[in-house]
Amino acid sequence: MGDTTQLGSAMAVVMFVWAAFRQFFPDKYQRDVRKYVNKVVSCIYPYVEITFHEYEVDSWFERSKAFISIERYLSTNLANRAKRLKASVVKDCESVVLSMDDNEEVFDEFNGFRIWWTSSKKIPQQRALYLYRRNNEDEHRFYRLTCRREHHDVITNVYLKHVLDEGKAIAVRTRQRKLYTNNKSENGRGNKRTWSHIVFEHPSTFDTLAMDPKKKKDILNDLMTFSKSKDYYKKVGKSWKRGYLLYGPPGTGKSSMIAAMANLLEYDIYDLELTSVKDNTDLRKLLIGTSSKSIIVIEDIDCSLDLTGQRKPKKKKEKAEQEDKDPVEKKVEEEDEKKKKKASEVTLSGLLNFIDGLWSACGNERLIVFTTNYVEKLDPALIRRGRMDKHIEMSYCCFETFKVLAKNYLDLESHELFETIGRMLAEIKVTPADVAESLMSKSDEENAEICLNNLIKCLEDAKEETRLKAVEDARIKTEEEAVEKKEKDGENVQESDAKIANDDKVQVNDAKEKSVRGA
Ligand SMILES: Nc1ncnc2c1ncn2[C@@H]1O[C@H](COP(=O)(O)OP(=O)(O)OP(=O)(O)O)[C@@H](O)[C@H]1O
Ligand SMILES: [Mg+2]
To answer: What is the CATH number of the domain that holds 293?
Structure first.
């Protein structure tokens, strides 16, 4: 498209002359002259240019959907016509995707018309001074379409629709699910890239997830119903999202469950690290930056921020404990608290708004999942139904859970040792993670029976550990009670000593008064 480049230079000359003219002539002449200039320009430059920016002016944190669709269309259909290409590797090095490099130009043909596409980027002047900076957050990338003026209507009404539709179809065909994490909020830098991602390839599924089969079926039904309920949510006037609270001890399968949910519904995962979010405004930006068909996860919500203390005043007992603490320990805790606050100013109300405020309706088909080891620590407002619609307890390994793990790890559906294991699991608390570890064969020589015996050994050890812990707890309790009794006795002795001293004082005073009166 060399002729358009030359014409571009001619245009620049015309624009220069026009700017000079505007300096010296009043408005009324300018209007007439502009009309003629436009006519001349359209004669000597018979093209129209349309620019598609990566970020639209009023939406600095959401990539333009048109830009993304055009990018896909050009990469798939026209990249092989470009002289310089950019390569990116996808699907764990299985294939390479080529796209146009910056400042490249390709042409397309549509209904016998020719259309040119250029890819460019503008680097802000400030940024150009710091060429060593490797991140490219503040680059302004854009695609420019050029077509002949007489084709303008067909191009804007038909061709562009074809490009955007094709871009969407390619996205569906080549979709790779992603695991996103939020970038640390930075002060006043205008960081647009709120999320970074890798390809999501977790192997956990509802088949490999070990839990009570009834409970599993219930969750599966709930998820499937949700994914098909677009019209229902519209009818009842609710935004199409659902909250899940997964709670239970470490190693009971909460994270595995999230991966299984994503694999079942083919959703992306946004793993939100709350302590890296500066404030509620940034939290909102992150929400807007998420796509539909996704799971937003906040793991260990009880540890993320002090979301409990901001609504509830400290309990009396906690306050008293705080006062009794060693001053050094107290100072360290206060410092930790300060650091935490400095790092993030997200509040409970900010988080509540994130889950079901007005902005939460800006996407569709989304799950919000919280996980915690201590459900009792959470503010009831955070987990009330409507916010966290479904509460799922992930608990210690029972016989049903064990059977799933035995099937997954050993391909066993029954064995003579199953009965012993079942009996032991009924009285000993071990997590599915512990059971899974015992069932995993560590060498070629380890067969299913050796693994089951490993598990029995693990259960016996756990039982012994629990017994020793109970003995130790009882000893500590007795010691504490003895100390408490001693303190109480000491207080009583002090009290009675003080009373005796007081009585003596009163008697001496009485005697003094009597002798004064007698004198
Ligand atoms: N219910 C389960 N079904 C299958 N595998 C499990 C289950 N629970 C735990 N595991 C195994 O234990 C490992 C740890 O589990 P996971 O990370 O899901 O636990 P978690 O509940 O998220 O723990 P935490 O509270 O510490 O984050 C997993 O990689 C998986 O192999
Ligand atoms: Mg986890």
So the answer is: 3.40.50.300
**210 close to ligand 1 (CB < 6 Angstrom):** yes
Q: Which range marks the domain in which residue 112 is found?
A: 46-175
CB–CB of 468/438 below 8 Å?
A: no
**SS3 helix, strand, coil % of the chain, rounded to 5?**
55, 15, 30
Question: Residue whose CA is closest, atom 12 of ligand 1?
Answer: 433
Quote the pTM value.
0.69
Cα dihedral 154→155→161→165 (10° resolution): 130
Residue range 29-44: mean pLDDT, rounded: 74
Among residues 329, 360, 393, the one where a domain terminates is 393
pLDDT digits over 315-351, tens only?
444 455 555 666 767 777 766 666 555 567 888 888 8
pLDDT, mean of residues 437-445: 81
What is the position in ligand 1's atom list of the atom closest to the CA of 408?
A: 4
Q: Render pLDDT for 374-408 as a digit per residue (tens, 0 to 9).
A: 999 888 888 888 889 999 999 999 999 999 999 99
Separation of CA 435 and ligand 2 centre (Å): 16
259 and 293 part of one domain: yes
Ligand 1 contact via 436 beta carbon (within 6 Å): yes
Q: Given strand 105-110, what is the order of strands in its sheet?
A: 47-53, 140-148, 113-122, 105-110
ipTM of predicted complex: 0.98
In this structure, which residue's CA is closest to atom 14 in ligand 1?
Answer: 251
CB 198 within 8 A of CB 101: no
Is 303's C-beta closer than 6 angstroms to any atom of ligand 1? no
Is the domain of 377 the same as that of 417?
Answer: no
Given a cut of 50, whether residue 311 has pLDDT beyond it is: no
Same domain, 203 and 293: yes
